[in-house]
Amino acid sequence: MTSSKPVLAISAIAPIVLLIIMIAFLLGPASSFLQFGIVLPEVSIEKIEFTGNEIQATVRNTGPINVNVVLADVNDRIQPAAIEPDTSLERFETALVRIPFDWNEGQPYEIGVTIDDGTRFSKGIDAAFPSLEPDIDLFVFLGMIGFLIGVVPIMIGLLWYPFIKKLGKNSFNFFLAFTIGLLIFLGIDAVIEAAEISENHLSSVFNGELLIATVIILSFLALYGVGKKLTQKAEFSKLSKGLAISLMIAIGIGFHNLGEGLAVGAAIALGEVALSTFLIIGFATHNTTEGLAIAAPLTSTKAKIAKMIGLGLIAGIPAIFGTWIGGFSFSPFFTLIFLAIGAGAIFQVVLSIFQYMKEKSGLLSNISLFTGISAGLLVMYLTSVLI
Amino acid sequence: MKSGIQSSKMFYILLSIVMVSSLYFVVPSVIVAEESPRTFLTHTGLVIQTTGDVIDPIGYDGEALDFDPDKFMKEFDFGEVTILDDGTVLREFYITARDDQIMEVSPGVFYNVWTFNDSVPGPTIRATEGDLVRIHFTNEGSKPHSLHFHGIHKAEMDGVFESIGTGGKFTYEFYAEPVGLHLYHCHVHPVEEHIAHGLYGAYIVDPKEPREPAEEFVFVLNGLDTDFDGENNFYAANTIPFYYQHHPIEININQNIRAYVVNILEFDAVNNFHLHGTLFHHYPAGTDTVPSGYNDMLTMSQGDRQILEFNYKYPGLYMFHAHNTEFSEKGWVSTFLVKENANDFDTEVEYDDII
């Protein structure tokens, strides 16, 4: 076997070497042969911020060629500006365009940049909003928002535990199915939200939609493996199967809330939402159902209060980190990643609950399953309307 | 068994390479702060402190200039003069059209201009009423072009139905009439495209009895649609946006000024001209000797032109610009620096590194 080692290495490396040679050939001798078509530059404005008397735009070269950003404008009127670090942008490089401008709060603006070939790229903002100062007040504020939309509602939802526990087997199945409905809705919600971020904030070079699909599947597979291990372990230890399922639901919802927190924090920082009390109420009501989802599988076991609180925190605290990260440095890319991880995790949890129910009850075609899922979806939809 | 371990190792190595290299694209490049930010005063009076570059269309310092508006506004092409047997003055001009040149039209912005004699606008053709004007036209462009003069001439000299192909030549000949300020441009279809790219120029027919002596300037009001969306990205008097704002045109107090203003702006139906600090007498198309009005505003449609006569009572820096402020904020904004006597003002205005 040892004699085949070098052969094995060569067989692994050879295709890569050949690929490199091919690329070198295409870039070198064959480059003139392959020169056809017109290469168009592209610049994306990823972020627009309004400070004291300045408008700041983060621009990224998302095209196939290097460009120079040579002019800035506000509402299609040329304005003197500064660009940091400098005017030349290589592929994927970003720069900050700083335009001194006495902007008016609440007014829509369109920010544009012109590159060396005279092409103008622009992005509109519905309402100018002063970007938040990254200080301790904002830190506390964002933390509070995360706490209110993440931790508190889940804890409230967990309080359903004694009620569900007292129900009979059919009712218990109903609530597990109800949880499935909730989770399916959350998963779809996360996918849609990720797609929106991809469309509004992420430049097309990142292939946002494919990235979402890839991350969802990877996340699903990873949690499938972890979940299998966890439930196997549960059979040999004191860790009950119900608790294992709950833990996985909590982890899945945790990822989801991290993504949700990122989105909410970013929306606050970018001034894209009028963050009203009503919105907080909507999110809180919506997320209370997440607590119910964690509580349902636990009812088959004797769960300690401390463990339940722990599960609630696993699911809820990521929302706080989300609002912090999203509020202080919004990255559409990572928000999208976490939303997709959350979606993949949630779909995996849905599968686990199905398997758990099948093991416990044997059959999956009973009435409580369908009514439960339907009720879960409807409740989620109705609470989402509040947001 | 061993090969299995190795291939999984290989997989992880590949995976980590992919992840690390994707991070390179994802994480915005770190902006490294320089030791001390520099301070700039922009042309709008705003102050910028930055460690980066300033992008302010402050015009040219002279070196990067492909086209010199200062030179253009005072340059008249009187042609090669021959007195014919019957006493008629023959003026011969040579005009070459090209469409392959790239010109820096605003700092850092490069645009494919189509030119008469390598210039946008083309040379200002000037003759006296009754002169025989002969224009030797050569098309060195890749597309057909022509010369269409406004004025009185024979149909076959109109430059509309006979486009001159690549490498072609044509001699236009007509008598200079009537007196006035006219223009010429390429009339090959699509005319909008040929004009928008720069194929035009001013054409002046002086009266036999010369006009009152005055300092004379030509202002061709034009625009540039650099991204081809049917809207101008830049507006200017004489092509370069913001040029005369940073290079004030120096004149003297009480000096008689005559401005030849030609509007050849494409895409926008109306252009206008507003003079600060004084009013002008204006002569539509310059065909009459009596001014048609005394005003500080002129509204001009495409192809309209006006001769303006004015002087300044007080010294100082005065603006003239499109009162359609969209145009002025995209470059059609200029200044006169009126001097009490010849050495009153420092003419060099520095905008960079003031502090």
List the helices and strands and how they pair.
The complex is a heterodimer of chains A (387) and B (355).
Chain A: H1 4-27, E1 43-51, E2 54-61, E3 67-74, E4 77-79, E5 81-84, E6 88-89, E7 94-100, E8 109-115, E9 120-125, H2 136-158, H3 161-165, H4 169-201, H5 208-236, H6 241-269, H7 277-298, H8 305-328, H9 332-361, H10 367-385
Antiparallel strand pairs in A: 1-2, 2-7, 3-4, 3-6, 3-8, 5-7, 8-9
Chain B: H1 2-26, E1 38-41, E2 47-50, E3 53-55, H2 69-74, E4 80-83, E5 89-106, E6 109-116, E7 125-128, E8 132-139, E9 148-149, E10 169-175, E11 180-185, H3 191-196, E12 200-206, E13 215-224, E14 234-237, H4 243-246, E15 249-252, E16 257-263, E17 270-275, E18 280-284, E19 293-295, E20 297-301, E21 305-310, E22 316-321, H5 325-328, E23 333-339
Parallel strand pairs in B: 5-8, 7-12, 13-16, 15-23
Antiparallel strand pairs in B: 1-2, 4-5, 5-6, 8-10, 9-11, 11-12, 13-14, 16-21, 17-20, 17-22, 18-19, 18-21, 22-23
